[in-house]
Each structure stands twice: as C-alpha cells, then as structure tokens.
Amino acid sequence: MRIVLATHSFAQIGGSETYLLTAAEHLQRLGHAVTIHAVETGPVAELAGARGIPVAASEDELPAACDVVLAQDAGMAYALAERFPGVPQALVAHSELHDVQLPPMVPGLTRVVIVLSERVAQRVAALDPAYPVVRLRQPIDTERLTGLGAPRDRPRRAVLLGNYHQDQRRRLLEEAWEPQGVEISVVGLRGASSLEPSAELAAADIVVGKGRAILDGMSCARPAYVYDDFGCDGWVTSATYPAMEADGFAGQALGILTGRERLARDLREYTPDMGLANRELVLLHHKARNHAHELVGVLRSLAPDARPASTADAELARNVRLRFAADRELTQLRSLYGDVVDRVNAADALLGQRRVRTGLALGRAADRLRRIVQR
To answer: What is the CA radius of gyration of the chain?
Structure first.
C-alpha cells in the first residue's frame, strides 16, 4: 500500500511524534510505501529521514497518489482530504485533552478512529458524529529500547522522562526521594533533551513519567513509576498494569492522592526485579512489529483494492535507504559502546584509588594499634 502518515507537528520529541515515527518505520519494513507529512518539521523529522523514512514538509513533496491516509489531527485530515479526494482516511486519536487531536466533525471524512487507551476511547465514543473505534496498544520499539545492564539492588538514580514535569511536582519528588539517596535528573522539555533516550534509561535505576515514557522505561527493563503533573499511580506491576494501560499510563487509574509521605513510602517498595517483569509486559503487549501487523489490517479494510506499492526501482530505493539507516545506527552504537567503556574504565580507576586509600588507612590504623599494644 501507499500510505501517507500526517501530523501537524513533527519537530520536537513527544508521545504522538514518537508513535508516528515508530509506526512509519515498521510499516516501511513490511514493504509499504510510506511518506510522513507535517507542517512543522525539526529534529524528529531529521531523525525519521536518517532512518530512511521519506518526510514531506510541504504538499508539493507529497506523492502524486496514495491508497490510504493515517492522520493524527483534524487539521491534517481536512488538508489531505482536499489533496487526495476520495482516498479513505483513518485517524489515530492520542488525547482526550486537545480537541485538535480528535477526528473531524464532518461525517464521512474519517472512516475509522484508532485509539491507544480506554480513556481516549470513551472520549471518541461520545463524539457527534459517531465513529467506528479500533482499540490498539502503544507500539514500542523493543529492539532499540532494550535493557543495558540491570538496575541496582538499592536505587541511586531516577530519570524523570517526558514533557510534563512542573517544578512543584519535581521538587516534591526530590524532597521525598533524595534523602533516601536517589539522584533525580530530567530528560525532556524541562531538562536534557534526547531524541533517543536509551543511554539515559540505561544509566537509571527508576524511570518516572507518564504515557509512552513509562513504556520506554519498561522496555529497557527498568522499574517504572507513574507520576507527573496529572497524577500518580505509583509502580507499574503485573497487578497494576491492566488498569494503568487502559488509562494510558496517565496517572489517574487508581484514584490515589499524592503526598511526600506516600512518595517516600513507595520508594522503599522498590526492587530491581520490577524491571524484568516490566520488560516482559512490553514484549507481550507492546511490540511495534505486532502493532504494525494490526495497523495494516485496519488500513487494508479501508483500501481493499490497493495494489502492492513496490516496483523494482522503488524496492531498490527502499533498501538503499534502509542500508544507510542501518550504517548510521551501527556508528551510533559503536560510539555509545565507547562511551560506556570510558565510564566503566573511569569507575574502575576511581574504585582502584579508593582501594589504595582504604589500604593505606588500614595500614596506618594497624600501625597505631601495634604501638598501643607495645605500650
């Protein structure tokens, strides 16, 4: 199939941007002709290009025709209905908060709405006009986001991953956790920016956040704590996962109020084994390749007469793009490996210095003890 995936903003990293990038990459790996179209482009669009995914920053760069459109907001749905008249559309609704991310209110424009949580499904079900709703789960690239090392038996570092950590909420967490020896850093709009946070997650013992950020941490085999400006549901476990997943990991599934005492008490329940269980949950429910299979089924139902998109030239071009993307990723992995080796060597050197100092201190203590005994 020839598929155009459309979103208004494809500039900064966020949940809907990461979803579109993940879906596009896995659809392309299945041989579909994929183009991402966005009004606003930036680092995320550059990352997509580096992974071999065509990005059209203007309508002039769009293909002449397509079989189906997958939009992420009403504005792009309207624009592409004009650009590709008669082409069926699906829309992925990501939010119950932002009306622009809901489907158009013009009947017949969007054929089906895909939702990734029960929370959003309820919102879409209440719309007028009514839409057929398909419930899928958030796709996570478990091949890139994988466990590197294990979390410590006693946590020392927590990463607040995402764009929704206001200063007051962050300070509350710091006041509860830092006295227990946990250093907290922020990765997102209010901290260090990272398009591919696997290194930051590998260095953490705990990942704190909401939505896709939680699933990213779980995929990296890290204990995950649902907490941000909208609420706190605490640790993801096999028992709490169903309710949290249905809520979109938004922090409002369990109806528990947050306080400093509760945050401190929850930290004492930490065990590194939570990370292994989380990885298994993601592999079972959120593998991106499985999501792509389900997505293809939805899109084919809208365009049953679509012919295979591949020609000899198109397939050659796709494979060349993927080869360049693989070479780039291999270079990045080598660089990351070098950084990890440097950190390990530095840690070993520091440990060696501490051992020398400890040995000298023990020697001096033994000398003093001998002198005291000789007296």
So the answer is: 24
Residue count (the chain): 375
User: What's the pTM value of the predicted model, to 2 decimals?
Assistant: 0.83
HSE-up (13 A, CA, CB side) for residue 274: 27
Region 83-103 average pLDDT: 94
* pLDDT at residue 192 is higher than 70: no
Count the alpha carbons within 13 Å of 39 in the hemisphere toward its beta carbon. 11
280 is written with which tokens? Answer: 């298994």
Distance CA 35, CA 84 (A): 14
In 3D space, the residue among 75, 212, 210, 227 whose CA is nearest the CA of residue 145 turns out to be 212
Which ranges of the chain would DSSP assign to H, the alpha helix?
15-29, 43-50, 74-83, 118-125, 167-177, 198-202, 212-219, 241-246, 260-267, 273-285, 288-302, 312-374
Beta bridge partners of 6: 37, 71
Q: What's at 65, amino acid-wise?
A: A
pLDDT digits (tens, 9 = 90+) for 24-68: 999 999 999 999 999 999 999 999 999 999 999 999 999 999 999
Rounded CA-CA distance 233/242 in Å is 12
Asked if 4 contacts 64 with a C-beta cutoff of 8 angstroms, the reply is no
